């Protein structure tokens, strides 16, 4: 059946697309990032939680949520995981909140309070996120919250990594000390304790004796001269 596709904004994790079918049905398709995308450890299998939320909210609390049309939650499935749901009509609150009259705003906030109160009547089999990497729900809220906080802190410590070393067009076979100039551009590599610690872990601590410092000065002069001369031909 022919369909029209429109990218939707507002999400910070999944790719979200609105699909309009010729029979007037409106669907929302959510596709998570590829498995090799760098992400915090707690951002895995988020669709599993969304499917569970829709099902629980609709059946146990009669909350107006999207209906799940189809879901594939196996991260290793052919084509990858996805969620297809119906589109709830309306406009996102953040797009209209500044134009809503006070009396209507109060009425809508009260309505939201009632919906949330009904949601809070839905109970799970344990505490915590339903998806990996957290494992099965824990027996207490304290355990779950501690695990969730630990996961966030682990993500803060390990979410970034170096993806590659590029732009090697100026390489030359010669003195390794020359690399220390561009790696501390307009500075001094001797002041970069973290870099030197990593270097020492592999090759031993570099010695900065008189000979090395003299060569550093020569390589620094060479690189800075290149930068100065190229300012004209490169505009």
Describe the protein in words.
It is built from 7 helices and 5 strands; from the N terminus they run βββαββαααααα. The chain is an alpha+beta fold. The model has no long low-confidence stretch (mean pLDDT 86). A hairpin with a 4-residue loop joins β2 (15-21) and β3. It has 2 domains: 3-90 and 109-157, Phosphorylase Kinase, domain 1; 176-229, no CATH class. It has a 5-stranded antiparallel β-sheet, with helices on one face. The chain has helices at 46-61, 93-96, 102-119, 141-158, 179-182, 193-203, 210-229; strands spanning 3-7, 15-21, 26-31, 68-72, 82-86.
Question: What attributes characterize this protein structure?
Answer:
five-stranded antiparallel β-sheet; 2 domains; 5 strands; 7 helices; Phosphorylase Kinase, domain 1; elongated; 12% strand; 235 residues; single chain; 39% helix; alpha+beta
How many distinct beta strands?
A: 5
In the CATH scheme, the class of the largest domain would be Alpha Beta
Major sheet strand order: 1-2-3-5-4
**What is the averaged pLDDT score?**
86
Radius of gyration from the CA trace? 28 Å
CATH superfamily of the largest domain: Phosphorylase Kinase, domain 1
Q: How many distinct domains?
A: 2
Broad structural category: alpha+beta
- CATH level-two architecture of the largest domain: 2-Layer Sandwich
Percentage beta strand: 5-15%
What gross morphology would you assign? Answer: elongated
Query: From N to C, what is the helix and strand string?
Result: EEEHEEHHHHHH
Per DSSP, the total helix count is: 7
Low-confidence stretches: none
- Percentage of residues in helical conformation: 25-40%
Distance between the termini: 54 Å
CATH-derived topology of the largest domain: Phosphorylase Kinase, domain 1
Biggest sheet descriptor: 5 strands, antiparallel
